[in-house]
Every structure is written in C-alpha cells, then in structure tokens.
Specification:
heterodimer; A: mainly alpha; Ferritin; about 0% strand; globular; B: alpha/beta; four-stranded mixed sheet; three-stranded mixed sheet; 4 helices; binds zinc ion
Chain lengths: ~250, ~160
C-alpha cells in the first residue's frame, strides 16, 4: 500500500503544483481569452489533483483527508517533478513548461487508463479527455511562438533551453514504479519517453525550434528534493489552513 | 429502508427540476450528472459524476440535491462520486441541445469527440444567433472549462460553444 500511496501522490502533486503555478496567472494573461485558458487549464489540473488526493487518502487509510495531504505536507513529502514548480518567467516559459507536461500527461494517462487499479484507470480516462485539449492548445502555442516575431522566437527558444534540463526527470523510475509495474498498476516510463520524444520532435520541427543538447539533468523529486521554488509555492498555498486550522470553506 | 420503485421514480422526478447553476436552461438530469439512485440500510444513495474534473459547480449540485430532497421530506441522503464511465457530452439529449442553442450556447456536435491533437478535423459549429456555419474558434476555453469561445463570421457575434468531451 505504501508504494501505491506514493505513486498516487506523484501523479497528484504534478497536477496540484502545476495547477497552482498556472493559477498565479489569473488576471495576468496577455489578453482575456488566454487568461481564461490558462486558468481553466489550472482548474482541470486542480480537479484531477483533488480526485487523486482523495484516493491517496483512502489508500493510506490513516485518517488524513485530501485537504490534509495538500495543505499539511512539507516540501520533502511532495513528489511533483521539478519542472512543474519552475516559475512563470514569461509567457514562453509558461507555454513550454505546459507543452512538456501536457505531452507527458497525455501519453501517461493514455497508458494508465488501462491500469489494473480501477480507480487510477477511471481517473486517467477522465483526465485524458481534458489533457487532450491542453496538449492541443500548448502545441499550437509552441508553433505560434516558434514561427512568430523575432522576439517570440527568441523567447520560446530561451524557455526551451532553460527548461530542457528538467525533462529527463519525468521518466525516472525507482522501486515504487518497478513494484507497481509488475502488478499492472503503473506504466513503464521508458515507453512514455519514446512517445514523448516523438511528439516533442514533431512539434519542434513544425515550430522551427531546435532541440537542445542534453546537459545537466535535474533530479531528486522522487525523494522529495526540490528547487528553491517549491517552498514559496507551499508557503502561499498552505498559509491559510496552517494559520487558521479550523477555517472552513 | 426498503425503497419502492415508485419512490425512485418520484426522486428522479424531483431531480429533474434542479438547474445547472451556470447554465440554468439545463437540469442536472439533462447533463447526465446523476448516474444512479439506490439505497443502503437507512440511507438513500445518489451517485453523481463530475462533468469536468475541476468543475466548480459540483459542490453546488450536491447541495442542491440534498436540499431539494429535504424540502420533499427525504432525509438521510448520501452523495457518492463516481468517475467511471467518464462523463461525456453525448449524454446530453437532443431536446436539451435545442434548449442550449435557443439560450445562445452552441451545443456539442455529437460524435465529434476531438481525436486529433493538432489542427485536425475542426468541427463545424453553428452560430446560435443566425445559424451560419461560417464560424471560427477564438479560444479553446471560454467562460467555463466546458466551453470554447467562437465567433460568427456572418453576424459577427461572439458565442460560447459547449465542447465535446
Ligand atoms: Zn451568426
């Protein structure tokens, strides 16, 4: 059960932290429609995170609720990949981060909808429908930025170069994955990696974006190690329930 | 509690009057949000499914169901959530789609669950005002996650399109 709990948390935390990052753009979008797109994507992700955290709490079976898991875990117990916590530097960084995650989630949920764990399978089938829209939107933005003005080209290439170091962490596996793959619950991320690479290559070619050379590779989130940014996100997200533990929505 | 078939029928009838908080021309039954009604010991169990994962109307649905039944003397109601099968716009019936269009929201085009990830098979969406199909998408996300924003190239009105899911 410990393995399953940790695996669900990884899925949930990716959505929760990316959703929170996106929600920071509320009222800051470049124009109204895009502001709404970003925050609606955030809403989908936060909804997916909630479904997963409810299930994680049930699997853990120690009396914690989904809210406890979101609001009372410290950084070291968060397992989101570091890519999701990277800051909203500019619109290009937001969209590149999103494109990398959308492509990952699309193939991951496509596979997990056949998981032998029926709850994970059901949540994945539902999430996949939403992620399909996300991936289409972020793919279109990659192309639009990559083929846009000299400034958009420069910014999108810079964002790709800055964020590339965080992509290999998406496909890291440890003993949790191995145990759950053998039970048919988890999926082999090596297979997702191939699909992800093909999609990224395809969109980069359409967008005239050059793929960076592999260099430094961020790692650690599987053990709860993060970049300096996660602490600030949690401080903001968890402030209210920590300061006023009895507060009700 | 042994619940008679008539009681279930009666409850389905009551739920018919609960509107969607954001699209009041649709009821929660039109949307297909209520999946099953059953009973267990002394409790009535209403199983619902979310439209979108993050749909903010879900809590409202739950509160509305509980209070509607309470008004009609039915207590001990438990709301359960299910994700399987995942919600689809195909559950919205033709009559409800007509009401959506009359209300100014282009209804989901059946059978066009967008499979292509990129630029593929763009659906023909009909303008709810002038009924022209000469329309184009402005944004994949409109006023809520379930809608996209379109504009009509003939009457020039912007409008919401209820996306296929
Ligand atoms: Zn028109």
């Amino acid at each position: 059960m410990k393995n399953l709990f940790k695996y669900i948390l990884r899925l949930a935390d990716n959505s929760l932290i990316l959703g929170h990052r996106l929600s920071e753009n509320c009222s800051w979008g470049p124009y109204l429609e895009e502001d709404i797109s970003i925050t609606n994507t955030a809403l989908d992700l936060l909804g997916q995170a909630e479904e997963l955290l409810i299930y994680a709490a049930e699997v853990e079976n120690e009396g914690r609720t989904a809210d406890d898991l979101a609001y009372k875990r410290p950084e070291i117990e968060y397992y989101n990949v570091q890519l999701t916590e990277q800051p909203n530097e500019d619109f290009a960084h937001i969209q590149v981060r999103q494109f990398f995650m959308d492509a990952f989630n699309f193939y991951l949920y496509s596979a997990l909808k056949n998981s032998s764990d029926t709850t994970i399978a059901a949540i994945s089938a539902k999430s996949l429908k939403e992620v399909t829209y996300h991936l289409r939107r972020s793919s279109e933005w990659m192309i639009r930025l990559g083929k846009g003005t000299s400034e958009s080209k420069e910014r999108v290439n810079k964002a790709v170069n800055n964020l590339w170091q965080f992509t290999s962490e998406l496909f890291e596996m440890d003993e949790v994955d191995e145990a759950l793959i053998s039970e048919g619950i988890a999926v082999d991320l090596n297979e997702i990696k191939k699909l992800w690479n093909d999609k990224v290559t395809e969109i980069f070619e359409m967008a005239n974006i050059s793929k960076p050379e592999d260099g430094y590779k961020a790692t650690g989130s599987r053990k709860g190690y993060h970049t300096e940014y996660l602490g600030y996100i949690l401080a903001e997200m968890q402030y209210l329930p920590r300061a006023y533990p009895t507060a009700k929505w | 509690m042994v619940v008679k078939e008539e009681t279930y029928q009666h409850i389905w009838e009551l739920l018919k009057d609960i509107p969607d908080p954001e699209i009041p021309v649709l009821s929660i039954l039109d949307l297909g949000v209520v999946r099953t009604i059953s009973s267990e010991e002394n409790k009535l169990i209403i199983t619902i499914t979310p439209t979108y994962s993050g749909c903010p109307a879900m809590n409202q649905f739950e509160d509305d169901i509980v209070s509607k039944l309470k008004e009609n003397g039915i207590d001990n109601v438990i709301i359960k959530m299910t994700y399987d099968p995942p919600w689809t716009t195909d559950w919205i019936n033709d009559e409800a789609k007509k009401r959506l269009e009359d209300y100014g929201i282009a209804p989901p085009v059946k059978g066009t669950q967008d499979k292509g990830i990129l630029f593929k098979e763009k659906v023909k969406v009909r303008c709810p005002q002038c009924k022209s199909t000469n329309t184009e998408v402005i944004s994949q996300f409109g006023s809520t996650a379930c809608k996209a924003l379109y504009k009509c190239n003939d009457c020039l009105e912007p409008f919401d399109y209820f996306k296929c899911l």
